[in-house]
Amino acid sequence: METNKHITIFHGPQHPGITGNMSVELDLIGETIQKATTHVGYLHRGFEKLVERRTVIQAFTIVCRICVPEPDPNEANFAMAVEELAGIEVSERVKYIRVMVLELSRLASQCMWLAGQSGSIGLYAVGQWAIADRDLILDLFEELTGGRVYHMYIYPGGVRRDLPDGFLRRLEKVLNHFKKRLKEYDNIFINNASFKSRAIGVGIVSPEECIKNGYVGQVLRGCGIEADVRKDAPYLVYDQLDFEVPTAQGGDVYARALVRRAEMDQSIHILEQVIDKMPEGEIMVKMPTHRKFKLPKNDTWVKVESSRGEFAYYMAGDGSEKIRRMQVRGPSLVHAFTLLEDLLVGAELSDVALIMNSLGICPPEIER
Prior knowledge:
Blueprint: E1 6-11, E2 23-29, E3 32-39, H1 47-52, H2 56-63, H3 72-86, H4 92-119, H5 124-145, E4 154-155, E5 158-159, H6 167-190, H7 193-199, H8 207-213, H9 217-221, H10 229-232, H11 253-277, E6 298-306, E7 309-317, E8 323-329, H12 332-344, H13 352-359, H14 363-366
Antiparallel strand pairs: 1-2, 2-3, 4-5, 6-7, 7-8
C-alpha cells in the first residue's frame, strides 16, 4: 500500500475542530503535514471602517461584535480610549465593576477553550461540563446586562446599569461552584494520561520566536515568559488587586493548557477580591447626547489583557462627533497566520484541532 502519496485537504470552515469561520489548507504526505495555509474572509464585516461613519455612542454598539466569544475586552478598550481622549474620569465603583465583568468574561472564555481542547481529543463529556459551567456565567451576564453573549455594558463614561440587588452574593455562589469543579477538571482532563500523551511535545514554540513575532497570551506565558498587561501596564484597579501571572515551561500544547487552567484560579481570586472591595459611587459620568459629544483632535493607544492575550486599540479624533480612525490589534491575526502555519508543518493530521485550540484563535477578531 502506498503511504507517501501527496494530497491536499481543506480543514474547515465547517469542521468541528476549527475554532470559527476560517479554514486551513493542508498539504500532506501520508498523514504528515508538509505545508499549512490559513484562509480567512468568511466573516469580514469591516468594523474599523464602520466605526468611522458613526458617532461615539453609535460605534459603541458595534465593537462588542469584534470577538464573539469574548466581547467585553473590546468594550473596555473602546470606553477607555474615548475616556482618555475626552479627559473623562470614571468612579472607583465603575472600575471595580468593569474588572468584575472582564474577569467573568475571561472565565467564560476559558470554559469555551476547555470544551474545544477536550473535544479535540474526543473527551466530549469534559466539553459538555465546561459549556454547562459557562452557562452559569452567562446567566449572571444576562441578569446584569440583559444579554448573554453581547453585553454592550462597559459604556464610555461608566457602565450601563448598576448591580442588581444580591448580585454579588449570587456571583460568590457561582465562584464556589467553580472552585469545586476545577478540581474535577484537573482529574479528568488536565492530569488525564490521554491528554498528556497527545499534548506534551506537540505544537512547540520557542521564547525567541514569541518575542520576534509578537506572540502574546498563553503562547508567550507557556514559554515561561511572565507577560500580562494587567501587571505590566495596569489599568482600572488591577494595581490594587493581588494576583499572579501563571507561566509554564515547554512551549507546547500542554504548557499552554496549564497556563489557561491556572488563569481560571487567578480570575476567581480576583473576583473574590472585587466582591470584598466593591465601593459605593456613581456608575455613569454625565455626558452630552451623542450628537453633541465631540472627540478632541488627538489620538491615544490603550490595551487590556483578554483571555487570548494583549488586545489593543488605537483611536484618533478630529474635533467632530465622529471617530476619525480606530485600529484594533488583537492576538488572533498573528496566531492564525504566522504561528499556526509554522506549528502545523511536521505535525500529524490528527493534531491540527489540538494545536489550533491551544492558540485561542478568534476568527471574527481577524475579520475586523
